[in-house]
Amino acid sequence: MYDFAYHKPATVADAVKLLADPDAKAISGGHTLIPALKHRLNKPSAVVDLSGIAEMKGIKRVGNAIVIGALTRHVEVATSAEVKAAIPALAYLASHIGDVQVRNRGTLGGSVSNNDPAADYPAAVLGLGATIHTSKRKIAADDFFQGMFTTALEQDEILTAIEFPIPEKAGYAKMKNPASRYVMAGVFVAKTGGAVRVAVNGAGPCVFRQADMEKALAANWSADAVAGVKQSADGLNGDIHGSAEYRAHLVGVMAKRAIAAAG
Amino acid sequence: MPQVTLTVNGQTHTAEVEGRTLLVELLRETLRLTGTHVGCDTSQCGACVVHINGESVKSCTTLAVMANGANVTTIEGLAKADGTLHAMQEAFREYHALQCGFCTPGMVMSAIDLVQKHPEGLTEQQIREGLEGNLCRCTGYHNIVKAIAAAAEVMHGKRSEIARAAE
């Protein structure tokens, strides 16, 4: 690991100032950044530790939504009585990220800002049609995820919280790589205000919506409805862990499981 | 260089570290607490697990500066001053839950966190899933799972001593 300066600001405003340096990197749980730094994939001039910013913590219900601070760790979402009552699929998803120790450190904001194609949270954010709150603005999930490890966030913009609308029904299922536990293909389904959304993670270079499945489920909310929908392998990831065709097949299987989980 | 002050096994330490210094490096190289191991160094094997404020974390994936002000417990902090082992250590010994022993410090630290988080008790399946972040590459998991189940009974006050393993 190359060395870097370390800063621990107490407010979002101070963190934004420190991140104006294009070579500075934000850290919260560090469970993606530290491994990347060890591989010398990154050489930040400074690491800005967000973990001391109180205004970015906590889970609260606001109207018909659950708002979760970016610094909230996976274990906190997984065990939150509020999340379990309002969006059990989100608590389920959080309880299956990485392993226990990853969940004890990793944060919602870190996962979503990084937008790893094989991360879990982006599927919930896109599937639930969440709104991303940043230090500058609010961004709809549909506009946020822009490609592999790429989001709408600017260099000096920090994801501060995510607002998840409470759905009537939601479910998540994934096939994880048995060694790395990263998602091979996952599907998050949700019916919110009568509208159906289906988000697919792990299978492609970036989380995406499956419009054909959304149409089929809007007409008939059942696992049978998606059985006839074929996921194309075009543009999906193919690697030593599985071909694009295999992942395309998994999308169908995971969609059925996600619907079964949603009930 | 940043200064870090933290409590390790009840003792307060202050050290100068680089920004990039890992918590496991501070523990092993500065404080000479070499019971915490580095196995994979890629956040997967769990040999480096310690407790920060009572929760299990991988110290190879935590910057030392991020543990500033924290209360850290390592494998060296479990036994009593007179050498009496922690129930989890005693159970690992009784059930032969180790062979080479490399993964053991991390296994024990993860297992204690797991048991503490489940005062209602643990099924074998829950124990196996709770060890997902710890890899053993020689003796296998059967005896580790048995040891954790036996230690849980003592830690939760259901038994006063570790149940003897079958002869």
Automatic annotation (TrEMBL), chain A:
Gene3D superfamilies to which the protein is assigned, alphabetical: 3.30.465.10, CO dehydrogenase flavoprotein, C-terminal domain (3.30.390.50), Uridine Diphospho-n-acetylenolpyruvylglucosamine Reductase, domain 2 (3.30.43.10)
Highest taxon in the source lineage: Bacteria
SMART domains the record matches: CO_deh_flav_C
Keyword tags: FAD, Flavoprotein, Oxidoreductase
GO molecular function ontology, one term from the record: FAD binding
Entry-linked InterPro entries: CO_DH_flav_C, CO_DH_flav_C_dom_sf, Diverse_Substr_Oxidored, FAD-bd_PCMH, FAD-bd_PCMH-like_sf, FAD-bd_PCMH_sub1, FAD-bd_PCMH_sub2, Mopterin_DH_FAD-bd
Domain named FAD-binding PCMH-type: residues: 1-169
Keyword field contains Ribosomal protein: no
Record-linked PROSITE patterns: FAD_PCMH
PANTHER family: XANTHINE DEHYDROGENASE SUBUNIT C-RELATED
Name of this chain's protein: Xanthine dehydrogenase family protein subunit M
TrEMBL record, chain B:
PANTHER family: OXIDOREDUCTASE WITH IRON-SULFUR SUBUNIT
InterPro entries found in the cross-reference section: 2Fe-2S-bd, 2Fe-2S-bd_dom_sf, 2Fe-2S_ferredoxin-like_sf, 2Fe-2S_ferredoxin-type, Beta-grasp_dom_sf, Diverse_Oxidoreductases
Alphabetical keyword list: 2Fe-2S, Iron, Iron-sulfur, Metal-binding, Oxidoreductase
Gene3D superfamilies tied to this protein: 3.10.20.30, [2Fe-2S]-binding domain
Residue ranges the record marks as coiled coil: none
One Pfam family linked to the record: Fer2_2
GO molecular function: 2 iron, 2 sulfur cluster binding; metal ion binding; oxidoreductase activity
UniProt superkingdom: Bacteria
Protein name: (2Fe-2S)-binding protein
Signal peptide boundaries: none
Domain 2Fe-2S ferredoxin-type stretches: 2-78
